[in-house]
Specification:
Number of helices: 16
Order of helices and strands: HHHHHHHHHHHHHHHEHEE
Radius of gyration: 23 Å
Distance between the termini: 30 Å
């Protein structure tokens, strides 16, 4: 990938693709909400469509070059939802299943945004709720089954990654879901929330549930919200892996963020006559926080790593074959805050140092420096190879 684009900075082309699809998703969502008259006013629809694209999961999709196709998965899930709910024609249902299955093949957590769109329809539109849920649930099940079969075929041919192993302790995994992914999503736009912030957000989410137009029992609404959150994260709950990076939370984040925003906008529309200006100010604040997160916890961290690695190449004897010793590296060396994708370093991964080194070698005329074969770093110990110690790269103690 590095050789293809010439230098690491050219990964911006991939990020542009991601940002384009994010903007496209926001526009599609706005026109859908406008057509269905979801939310009371046009400014609320505009604000929600804008705010949803600044969630931490979407920030990662925009900032990481490797995640550039993930938003396409969301767009496909949206079109699958439209085909499924246009009418009860069997042809549309089959098309919906195919589109959703393709969405899952790109990135299943993003494809599970299909559940978020069902949530919007269930809570904010009129009609037979049970019939809609059953029909969309069948489509979701068929698409997930298709993806499961594909994964089994792929792992049979190319080997297992270990991530697809099914979890046998479902109750413990559900408790983990509420403790980690769910609480991360309650905090919505704040990646370093305090207990007080989480409590305030939870109260606003409950207000958002209360102000949804459906005239159901309040506790039934809460149970349904929880059920939708569990459904949107189901693929991750069903497997053994217990990591909850932000890029996997897009479905749960979107459900809870809509309720959070619904609560805030309904409260302020009752007490502030100029609530339109409040909405615009609120959207601007969220956009600023997203830009801050991306610049400070992702871009700056990556640029400093690349700069330090380039400096480390000055100590490499010319003509030597090099590799990288990633043992003992401090994960917080470039940022005081490190949680999943935010503040995370690339130098400690087995597959990223060589890509960064390719950029340095190619763009600094260091063609006499060679790297070991393969994409991954090798185990240190070969006396014929010069190992750059990543644990010492920050202080340059060579």
């Amino acid at each position: 990938m590095t050789w293809a684009v010439g230098k690491v900075s050219a990964f911006s082309y991939f990020r542009f693709v991601s940002v384009f699809f994010i903007a496209l998703y926001s526009v599609f969502l706005y026109f859908y909400m406008d057509k269905k008259r979801i939310f009371k006013s046009n400014i609320m629809r505009f604000s929600v469509a804008c705010c949803l694209i600044f969630l931490p999961s979407l920030q990662i999709y925009a900032a990481w070059a490797i995640t550039y196709p993930f938003v396409l998965s969301i767009v496909l899930a949206f079109f699958a939802f439209l085909f499924a709910n246009e009418n009860d024609d069997k042809k549309n249902i089959i098309i919906s299943c195919i589109i959703l299955a393709i969405s899952f093949l790109i990135y299943q957590p993003a494809g599970m945004m299909f559940v978020f769109f069902i949530f919007l329809k269930t809570f904010f539109e009129n009609g037979n709720v049970l019939k809609k849920i059953i029909k969309n649930g069948i489509i979701l099940f068929l698409a997930m089954l298709t993806n499961f079969i594909f994964i089994k075929i792929y792992t049979h041919l190319y080997g297992s990654t270990g991530r697809e192993t099914l979890n046998l302790h479902l109750f413990q995994k559900i408790l983990w879901f509420f403790n980690r992914p769910f609480m991360q999503s309650v905090a919505n736009y704040n990646i370093q929330p305090s207990v007080f912030y989480n409590v305030v957000c939870a109260c606003l989410i409950l207000c958002g549930v209360w102000y949804t137009p459906k005239k159901w029992n309040f506790f039934l609404k809460i149970l349904m919200v929880i059920a939708f959150c569990l459904a949107s994260y189901a693929p991750n709950i069903l497997v053994v892996e217990t990591s909850s990076p932000y890029r996997t939370l897009v479905g749960v984040e979107s459900i809870l963020a809509v309720l959070f925003l619904n609560g805030i906008f309904n409260i302020f529309s009752r007490f502030i006559s100029l609530h339109k200006y409040f909405c615009l100010f609120f959207v601007s604040g969220i956009a600023f926080s997203a830009i801050w997160n991306i610049n400070y916890y992702i871009i700056d961290v990556q640029q400093h790593q690349l700069s330090d690695l380039a400096a480390a190449f000055k100590s490499v004897p010319r003509g030597r074959t090099i590799d990288f010793d990633i043992r003992g590296i401090n994960g917080n060396i470039y940022s005081h805050f490190s949680q999943y994708e935010y503040g995370a370093i690339s130098l400690g991964n087995a597959w990223t140092p060589k890509g960064m080194a390719m950029d340095i070698i190619k763009n600094n005329g260091l063609n006499d420096i060679k790297m070991t074969d393969g994409i991954l770093v090798s185990d240190p110990g070969n006396k014929n190879i010069y190992y750059i110690k990543m644990s010492e790269i920050k202080n340059m103690t060579y």
